[in-house]
Write a structure and sequence with these properties.
91 residues, alpha+beta, 3 helices, 19% strand, globular
Length: 91
């Protein structure tokens, strides 16, 4: 899956929890755009970790394409293949 920053931004910007966070942080002067998010991890299964651009707010996408809000610890666990339900290639 070769998602671009724009494609990922389009996906996360439609999520209810992201809309709420973006509105909340807008009041504090934080912008929300494809330039302010950072894709921390994107693997061959389509699993993805995105820092949303404000404080410690993250979104993760699982291998079947479901997005949810996540903690930093969950993001690290996903990137290591240790989050329950995550996919990992075996060497």
């Amino acid at each position: 899956m070769a998602d671009t920053n724009q494609e990922i931004f389009e996906e996360v910007s439609k999520l209810d929890f992201v809309k709420i966070l973006a509105e909340k942080y807008k009041k504090d002067g934080f912008g929300f755009s494809k330039e302010t998010i950072k894709v921390e991890m994107l693997d061959e299964f389509g699993q993805c970790v995105v820092w949303l651009g404000f404080e410690d707010q993250f979104a993760i996408r699982d291998a079947v394409g479901n997005w949810r809000e996540a903690t930093a610890e969950e993001c690290v666990a996903l990137s290591k293949g240790e989050l329950p339900g995550s996919q990992k290639l075996l060497n």
